[in-house]
Amino acid sequence: MRSAWIILREIVRGVWITARHFVINMWLHTLNFLGLKTRRRGAVTIQYPDEVKPLAPRHKSRHRILRRPNGLPQCVACMMCATVCPSECIFIEAAETGDPEVQKYAASFVIDLSRCCFCGFCVEACPEDAIRMDTGDIRLAAESRAALDYPLEKLV
Amino acid sequence: MVDIVILLIKIVLAMAWLMFLALLMTWVERKESAVIQDRIGANRASVFGLRLFGLFQPFADAIKMIFKEDFVPSFSERLLHTLAPFLSFFFVAVTVVAIPFGDTVHLAARHIALQVADVNAALLFVLAMLSLGIYGILLSGWSSNSRYALLGSLRGAAQLISYEVALGLSLVGVVMVFPSLRLSEIVRFQAGMLFGFLPKWGIFLQPLGFAAFFLAALAETKRVPFDLPEGESEIIGFFTEYSGLKWGLFMMTDFLEVIIISCLTVTVFFGGWQVPWLGAAGFRFPWGASWLLPSWIVTALEVAAFNVKVFFFCWLQVLVRWTYPRFRYDQVMDFGWKVLVPAGAVNIVLTALILVVK
Q: How much is the pTM?
């Protein structure tokens, strides 16, 4: 008999909770629809393609290669990133600059984003601070695998 | 001749009302569950960029279902497999003819009842048709020739037959208080006042009967707290082998049942189209004031009141569906036979005692 009362109480409490959520959220939705600002919104939903949540400052997104003032990439083709990369998705071909201060640069620098796991080790490993992952570009879907091979031109 | 035309118009209007409300219910179900759970819900279906809170979603769903493959398994009983969803749908949809939408309208020396057919045993008619809906479930499960579908249909048949008993018993008290089975008469009996201020609605005369009726009716709709016939987490249900529009008919049947149960609850326990203190001539308040209204406004108010009440009970049933977890099968049977049936019986005895003493 006691358990029956507990069940009855919980039944009432359950419907009270959902009805409260419904009434409060409908009230907030109505106010917002009429153009009134409320401290809280009626739903926690972020309607993704329409409204985008700001990325955290420490986020990792698509890589970029920094340039020197003369336009060459800052990369000196030391191969540290390609070595540390756990996904083995960085492919570098070196060339000489003719500048004795710099000596080498990356003539071709391809990142296969279909393999990249966005661990950020390449950024940590780079001695020249040439590669960063702060573009904020996280919509990287493509229609073919080849389109995900990002060459130097798309990375600078 | 004119009578037949009027009857046809009434049939078309009633069916259109029912179908439109059923379409709306799919939207209400989505949106209400979303609002309860702090979400937004389906809002992407648009016509020329006009979204209207996702009100086009039901039409998009309908178009999708029409164009899906109508798959009939080779091991099924083809004729019965096709027949089952239509039976299921028909027996629920046909009950709308007995529901009174409003008082009799006097138009050009004609008396038009806002009801398709004033059946003299309307209450029994509605209950009988809802019971016959079991055939749809049984046939679909059996003709599919699939274990899951058969399990679902057996559960469904057992559950619905059990709750038919509780549903019938809980309504006996009502029939004793309003001595008629005619739904239009039952609504008219609820016109007066109780203790001078309360509307004489069924719920105030039969509170226990209402509780038993509403719980049994929830079980009749086969929706979530009682969705053993479907049981989508374990046996997918009696419509496992259906696809496309036939499956859609089963889904529509569920929503139609919600609407019909709301209509029946409103008609029997909440005064149908009665508005408190509103008579044929206008409002007559208990403190002596009165507000006279032309008859067409009175009729409009009554039809609007009926619709508002039906909407409220549809809302309440969706709220219940999105609040409670499912019963276990033995709990469903226990609840039906050991709680609701005795409650209905006690209600009959109490009602009889009060009627005799008074």
A: 0.87
